[in-house]
Structures are given as C-alpha cells and as structure tokens.
Amino acid sequence: TPEFDWQDPLGSKNLLTEEELAVSETAERYCQEQLLPRVLQAYRDENYDPLILREMGELGLLGATIEGYGCAGVSTVAGGLITRAVERVDSGYRSAMSVQSSLVMGPIADFGTAEQKERYLPQMVQGKLLGAFGLTEPNHGSDPGSMETTAREHPTKKGYYLLSGAKTWITNSPIADVLLVWAKLQATGKIRGFLVDRRDCPTGTLETPAIKNKNGLRASITGMIQLDDCPVPHENMFPEVEGLRGPFTCLNSARYGIALGTMGALEDCIEMARTYALERKQFKNNPIAKYQLVQKKLADAATDAAYGTLVAIQVGRLKDQGKATPEMISMIKRQNCDKALQNARVLQEIFGGNAVSDEYGIGRHVANLFVTQTYEGQSDIHSLILGRAITGLQAFV
Ligand code: TGC
Ligand code: FAD
After folding, report:
1. For residues 221 and 209, what is the distance between their CA atoms, to the nearest angstrom?
2. How far is the CA of 378 from the centre of ligand 2 (A)?
3. pLDDT digit of tens for each residue in the chain (397 aa)?
4. What 3-state class would DSSP assign to 307?
5. What is the b/e burial string over 161-182, where b = at least 16 CB atoms within 10 angstroms of the residue's CB?
6. Does the beta carbon of 375 lie inside 6 Å of ligand 2?
7. Can you give the pTM of this predicted structure?
C-alpha cells in the first residue's frame, strides 16, 4: 500500500515528466544551497544582489519556457516548478526572476522584431542584461487602460519617439538595463510597448529611483521609472501588438508562475511550522504538534497547498495545448495567493512569540504573500474578471 507523503499529499509528482522532475530538482538544489543562506541578510538590508540573475542564467532558469536564443524551451509546468523552488525561499527572489523571464523576455519573444530578439534575448537568458516591466502608474494601478504615459514623434530627430510619464512600484527598475514601458502612442491613443534601453538614454531623460522602506518583498528591489522626453528609436517599439492585449498576454504567464510559486512559499511555511510544533513542548511536556488545534492548522494548509499545486499543473498542461483561458489563470492566481496568505498567517500562530523574530522566516513569507495577492491584479480584481466571465456583466466601472 502506498504511504501518505505529507510533503506531496495528493501525489502531484506523478503528473510530472522526467524532464520536469529534473528541472525542479536543479532549481530546488540551487535555491536551497545558494539562495536560502543569503535571504535573511538581504531582507534585513533591503538589498537585491543582481548576481543572482547571473547564477540563475548559468543554470538555464531564466526565460526557461522560451524556444531558441539559448533558452531551455521547457514546458509551462516546468517553468512553474522553477518559480515554486525560488519562492520556497522568498517571493522577492521569484519576483526578480518572473519579471526578467515572463514580463520582459516573454513579450520580446512573443511580440519583438527579429532584431529586438537578437539584441536582447541571448544576453537576458544569461542574466547579463536585466529587465523591468513598467505598466503601473501613480494614478493607475488596477486600471492600466487609463495610463497617462505617452510617446510622441520627436519634433526634430527623425525616427525617434519622445516618451514622457511616470511608472511606479516597478520590480527591478533601479538595476534594469532594459525597461519595457507601456505608453500611449500620441498619434493613435493606443497602448504600445517600448524597449527603453538605459544605455541609449541621454542624462536626465530617464530616472529610476528606488522605493525604500518596504514592509514586504524586501529582498527584491522596487522603484519608479520617470521619463522626461526620453528619446526612443522607432525600432524599439513592438511592431504590431496594440492595446492592453500586449501587457496582459505576458501577465498570463507571470500570473501562472505566481500561482505555482506561492505554493512553494506555503510549503515552506508548513515545513517550518511542523518542525517547530514537533520540537516545542507545552503542558506536561507534550509537543504542541500533539494538540488538535495545531494539527488542524497544518491539515488546512497542507490541503490547500496540495489542491493549489494540482490545479496549477492542470492549467499549465492546458496552456501548452493552447486551451487555457485568461479566466483560468485569474482563478488560480487569486485562489493560490489568497490561500497561501491565509494559511501562512494562521501557521505563524504556531510559533508563538518566536513568530516575531525574523530568524524564523515565517513573518517574512506572510509579509511577502500580501504583495503577491496585490500585484499582477489584486485578488478582488480577479474576482471581478471571473464575475464578468460568469455573468456577462462587468463590475469594474
Ligand atoms: P478589458 O476590456 O478587459 O481588456 C482590454 C483588452 O485586453 C485584452 N485582455 C487580455 N488579453 C490577454 N490576456 C489577458 N489576461 C487579458 N485581459 C484583457 C482584452 O481581450 C482586450 O483586448 P482588445 O483587443 O479587445 O482590446 O480591459 P479593462 O480596461 O476593462 O481591464 C480591466 C482589468 C481589470 C481586466 C485589467 O485592467 C486588470 O487585470 N487589471 C489588473 C492590473 C494588473 O494586473 N497589473 C499588473 C501590473 S504588472 C505587475 O504587477 C508585475 S509584478 C511582477 C513581480 O514582481 O512578480
Ligand atoms: P489600486 O488600483 O488603487 O487598488 C486599491 C484597492 O482598490 C485594491 O484592493 C483593489 O482591488 C481595489 N479596487 C480597485 N478598483 C476596484 C474596482 N473597480 N472594484 C473593486 N475594488 C477595486 N507594476 C508593474 O507594472 N510592474 C512591476 O514590476 C510591479 N511590481 C510591483 C512590486 C511590488 C512590491 C508592488 C507592491 C507592486 C508592483 N506593481 C508592479 C504594481 C501592482 O501591479 C499594483 O500595485 C496593483 O496592480 C494594484 O494597483 P494599485 O496599487 O494602484 O491599487
């Protein structure tokens, strides 16, 4: 008779191919051996070491689902297993990687010209060039369609646009070499994607100040993108994609990565809480793991992690077959982020006063998971996307 495995209660491993298991193992080993030992100090210092993306590049973990240009070309599920391994250590490390892979390399692969792909992808896959994705603005977060950033024809320099506007809460922006900025083309009023290459921007036209003193995601660097008549050559605009379809197509991939990624963070919380509960003794020298209320917390969390993992694998398979809808991605992004946050918060109680020490790591996951529930569409926004699909009536406005 098969034995129950509390770390994989519903046997999700059985759904994975040999290649996916190998990718997962490589990623897990790197993350546990190389990332885990440095995360506490990085979080305390609010510091992100860009060398991490180099290391990930060497292992083939960046842009892993993309075909060609030195990318690994693995399945969507394998890409998700990489995000799960990274987020088991810290959501901020996963964020830096997701932006590089899904939100900058992905759209260049999907929408870029042959020259754009040749110029950026071979360097980005190695982590030698770093990317940022600028959609959110100070006045427009959940409603990016109302953005104010514009691109107008350069009045004197032929073949150039001038970009002006501000993006905020942008992962990696202070360290990025190439910033994918979504802006309205003045001539048409339509949203277009522009590859703003820091190396080519004259002084004073592009600033990317960091946003400091965050109370979550501190091991990831976040900033603004301020554009003041920044000249960008016509050939740096994505040639065809127009409107919100551009940014949202890549968000489908990034949101998928978060759905499996947050299961890694939750699994780490379960493992830490279980170990703690077995070691901590209260009342007649009993481990607190013996008490029913503590066991229920672990049972709830393990159930949600197992369910969340299975559905993410199912949707990943459908995505590779061209059968996944954006609403499916909304459903798993919302559910997995919400469940990871709720359970992590409850598991935190198992640590008693020690939960307050950052050495125990659970508080860091809780603070990070709030952010995962907020970015890439806050959970209530995903509820409205689902509500619209179920009723045919939109409730945004
Ligand atoms: P709506 O009318 O719904 O759609 C406008 C156009 O966009 C298309 N579209 C999609 N296409 C592909 N995939 C999707 N998921 C799509 N969602 C929409 C749609 O078909 C339509 O195309 P067309 O050709 O007909 O024009 O637009 P709306 O303005 O009513 O949108 C409302 C809403 C709520 C759906 C949308 O704005 C939304 O999802 N808001 C949330 C904002 C968000 O997710 N921001 C993410 C910022 S990036 C980020 O957070 C990165 S953090 C990364 C990290 O650190 O890990
Ligand atoms: P708002 O849109 O102001 O929403 C505030 C609240 O109101 C939310 O709870 C929301 O659900 C609710 N709300 C809004 N509209 C409605 C409605 N119609 N009905 C009901 N409720 C509603 N963005 C990028 O472009 N690139 C990045 O790399 C990036 N990285 C990020 C990193 C971090 C650490 C953080 C915190 C954010 C990042 N973001 C990034 C921005 C993120 O995507 C936005 O914060 C998010 O989309 C929400 O937008 P907002 O903060 O403006 O909130």
Report:
1. 10
2. 6
3. 999 999 999 999 999 999 999 999 999 999 999 999 999 999 999 999 999 999 999 999 999 999 999 999 999 999 999 999 999 999 999 999 999 999 999 999 999 999 999 999 999 999 999 999 999 999 999 999 999 999 999 999 999 999 999 999 999 999 999 999 999 999 999 999 999 999 999 999 999 999 999 999 999 999 999 999 999 999 999 999 999 999 999 999 999 999 999 999 999 999 999 999 999 999 999 999 999 999 999 999 999 999 999 999 999 999 999 999 999 999 999 999 999 999 999 999 999 999 999 999 999 999 999 999 999 999 999 999 999 999 999 999 9
4. helix
5. bbbbbbbbbbbbbbbbbbbbbb
6. yes
7. 0.97
Tell me which of 28, 137, 267, 376 is the catalytic residue: 376
Rounded to two decimals, the ipTM of the complex is 0.98
Rounded distance from Cα 142 to ligand 2 centre (Å): 5
- The residue to mutate among 53, 87, 244, having the most atoms of ligand 1 within 8 angstroms of its beta carbon, is 244
d(CA 365, CA 371): 10
Residue 371, ligand 2, Cβ within 6 A: yes
CB atoms within 10 A of CB 321: 9
Measure the CA–CA gap between 34 and 323, rounded to whole angstroms.
36
- Does the CB atom of residue 136 touch ligand 2 within 6 A? yes
CB 381 near ligand 2, within 6 Å:
yes
Query: In this structure, are residues 229 and 186 in contact, taking their beta carbons and an 8 Å threshold?
Result: no
Q: Which H helix or E strand runs over 197?
A: strand 191-197
96 Cα nearest atom in ligand 1: 55
Ligand 1 atom at minimal distance to the Cα of residue 217:
55
Ligand closest in space to the Cα of 371: 2
Can 376 be counted among the known catalytic residues?
yes
Q: How far apart are CA 81 and CA 162, in angstroms?
A: 40
Q: Closest residue (by CA) to atom 49 of ligand 1? A: 376
Pocket of ligand 2 contains residue 380 by CB under 6 Å: yes
